Amino acid sequence: MKPVTIYTTQLCGFCHAAKRLLTSKDIAFDEIDVAMNPDKRQEMMSRAHGRHTVPQIFIGDTHVGGCDELYALEREGKLDPLLAA
């Protein structure tokens, strides 16, 4: 399974929703809180091609996007294959 990284902040409802989906599917992920870490926020923005909102989710080197995109992949049956690829 590819590693999953999610950039978050503690007060972000979309971050919590994305983590809930991943947890419900028993998908381990690395969470990086960017709220008080400008270096990690800059890293996130660089990896996400300038996007500055959270969450920003990566599966391996693939930028999934945010919570809406993660749920769309799940609804379309594309999340599991992306994780396994």
Rg, Å, rounded:
12 Å
Provide the residue-averaged pLDDT. Answer: 96
In percent terms, what proportion of residues is strand?
15-25%
The helix content, as a percent range, equals 40-55%
SSE string, helix = H, strand = E? EHEHEEHH
Q: Compute the number of strand runs.
A: 4
Strand order, largest beta sheet: 2-1-3-4
Note the total helix count. Answer: 4
The chain-level structural class is alpha+beta
Determine the oligomeric state from the structure.
Answer: single chain
Global geometry: globular
The biggest beta sheet, please? 4 strands, mixed
Ends apart, CA distance between termini: 7 Å
In the predicted model, the low-confidence regions spanning at least 5 consecutive residues are none
